[in-house]
Amino acid sequence: MKNSVKIGVVGVGHLGFHHAKHLSDIGEANLIGVFDADKTKANEVARQLNIKAFDSLNSLLDEVDAMSIVTPTSTHVDVAQICIENKCHVFIEKPIATTVEEADSIIQLAKKHNSIVQVGHIERFNPALLALSDLKIEPKYIEVHRMAPFMSRGTDVPVVLDLMIHDIDLVLSFISSPVEKIYANGVSIMTNSVDIANARIKFKNGSIANITSSRIAKDRVRKIKIFQQDLYVTIDFLAGISEVYKAMDASDNDPKAIMSAPLVRRDGKNRQIFYEKPAVKKKDALKMELKNFIQSVLGKEKPLVDGSAGKQALDVAIKIHDKILEGLK
Ligand code: NAD
């Protein structure tokens, strides 16, 4: 069995640089080089990281077993297909593609060539979320806000595919029930596509998620509030803080209970509210997801977000976007 993976990065713009930087630092990854349609960018990144810039995707593919695809979303399907046809495992930045048909074609091709597909839904590796891994999350209601100042990067797709898809993926990972109904609206402000969006997703099991995303905000916000029976959880993905409030049966003077919250009786038992702020291990989420990919290629792990999860998030995102467009007619 191999103990390292020869890997390349295609697309070394804003995010691709960080992929290359982390891959050059992951022990079991052997970063062979980078390719970018913009030769100047590829040369600059190669110089900074002391690696090789390749003149074409094919020449890089000749030397690697895996590829990180960090090109604009509209190019993912074409680039992924070339990589997979060249027997490469692929890490594809989110969203996996621009249509469900494209996502399907990537997944089918990967199946045919035994290639691993991982999708860059980075929030799944956020240390503030991982700190809650011992909790049983079974939400009845989720409220999500994701806001970012305006930038031209990412505007090749609407805000739902650019930002909201992170939260759609998270919500789908929390609620294991089919989507029953979607209500959504939004507006275009700076670009020709939707820049601010709100979606209310109702699931067959009765759970509801309300997600708001804007790429025209003054400040950055990435917060989730999860409400379920006897449990309220908040996650601040940006600050890296999670907070947990649990209602539990308790003795009269349990010192761990929130003393400002009154002791009440339900079903003949005393109940109190308990607060916890789980310890969050400071780790770089991008590096952790790339490590998960490398370990998956080595056969030691499975991708936390595989092609099918990437496709499901895209499917819901497109349905939300279609609803928004209906409302704008
Ligand atoms: P960017 O515009 O900064 O970089 C894209 C690079 O790809 C550019 O250098 C461009 O020259 C190159 N390129 C374009 N077409 C190419 C092709 N066919 N072959 C080779 N190179 C090509 O974009 P970015 O912000 O780095 O985003 C890239 C991808 O990463 C997008 O899919 C975006 O959605 C995703 N992204 C994900 C996150 C996240 O949080 N996971 C954050 C930002 C971007």
Report a brief summary of the structure.
By secondary structure, the chain is α/β, with parallel strands linked by helices. It contains 9 helices and 15 strands. The strands form 2 sheets. It has a 9-stranded mixed beta sheet.
Bound molecule types: nicotinamide-adenine-dinucleotide
The percent range for strand residues is 25-35%
Helix content: 25-40%
- Based on CA atoms alone, the radius of gyration comes out at 22 Å
H/E topology pattern: EHEHEHEHEHEHEHEEEEEEEEHH
Mean pLDDT: 95
Distance between the termini: 57 Å
Shape: globular
Number of DSSP E strands: 15
Largest sheet, if any? Answer: 9 strands, mixed
Spans of at least 5 consecutive residues whose pLDDT stays below 50 are: none
Secondary-structure-based class equals alpha/beta
Task: Give the number of helices.
Answer: 9
What's the arrangement of strands in the largest beta sheet? 8-9-10-7-11-12-13-15-14
Task: Give short descriptive properties of this protein.
329 residues, alpha/beta, nine-stranded mixed β-sheet, six-stranded parallel β-sheet, 9 helices, globular, binds nicotinamide-adenine-dinucleotide
